[in-house]
Queue: 2 jobs
Job 1
Amino acid sequence: MLKQIEPNKQILCVLEDLETFTSYKESETQLLNVLDGINQMDNVVYLGTTNYPEQLKERILNRP
């Protein structure tokens, strides 16, 4: 919604506790769609955090 109001605004999106996003197949798919750019937005940086990196799958850990 912010991109509609200010399309050139730079945004930092922090995704805390990534392991909760990847614990369900549907949530993981939605997360990958955002990261892979199905609806790509310019000037957005995604930063993911977790206390349990061992719970993350390789396809999340090895993002380009």
Job 2
Amino acid sequence: MFHQRNMVRAAAGAILLLCAATAALAQSWPTKPVTLVVAYPAGGDTDAIARTYAEKLAQRLGQPVLVDNRPGASGMIGNAWVAKAPADGYTLLFTPSTFPIAQHVLKAGPGVAHDVVKDFTPIVKTGNIPVLMVTAPTSGIQTVAQLVAGAKAGKAFTYGTPGAGSPMHIAGELFNKDAGVAIAHAPYRGVAPVVNDTLGGHVSVGWITPGAVAGHIAAGKLVPLAVAERQRTKLMPNVPTFLELGYRDMDVSAWMGLLGPKAMPAEVVQTLNRHVNEILKMPDVQARMAALGIEPVGGEPAVLARQIADDDQRFGKLVREFGIRAD
């Protein structure tokens, strides 16, 4: 009995020491530079807004926040790097909404496999990015109804996306199913070629995000047909939603968020969450986000956790249903 009591006391003491160490870490964090991993190449929208947040965070934390680009495998290489990092708040992941999709459309290689729900700590959802369908005036398509009527009449329409397995690809296939048409998919490698070939009439419509086409829309070179959101986007308030037009399943907005490895100290998570929520309210940050076609979100970590879990389930099912595979 005496031996058992000593064991219980020792275990309790170890737990108290661990809690004390965790609290001390949270109170002193950060004492060195923080690395913000972006699992995509430098120069893209994800990288651009990550650098904006990193600059603002560095000012508030009193330590450098360094963006580390680790591209490859639709983000899975960088994701896996963060999943395996120490959960001390010094290695974070800034990711777009391909995060819960990539694992369903790509076969994870050795050392890359990870669970988007179990292997990460959600910190904050920073923004929503509307997904919209656009066309060139020369296409002769002025409304979604005209597109559907033409497709059902046998016209050979195509839709372009930034890549197989992207949220835009999923939106395109959902639209086909919802509208009862079979518009052919033309996958590209990135945003720019989708925009160029939609402008040039090489694809009938393009699935894209506002930041990539706002200038062309303003100049009358592209026509926005509808957005795949439940509500109209503030970035383009005159563009209807597919739901308004009667397509009930068309809710495929993209998003961006900040995460860390699993089991991060709660105090560090709350510190980061508070800072990022305040950063999202800054006028210059909001202006930068609007230029990139991003709507600020913020909120508690649970908002991002629910988004990831829901997307993992929903998009996993859709990927299997449509037989989607990335290149």
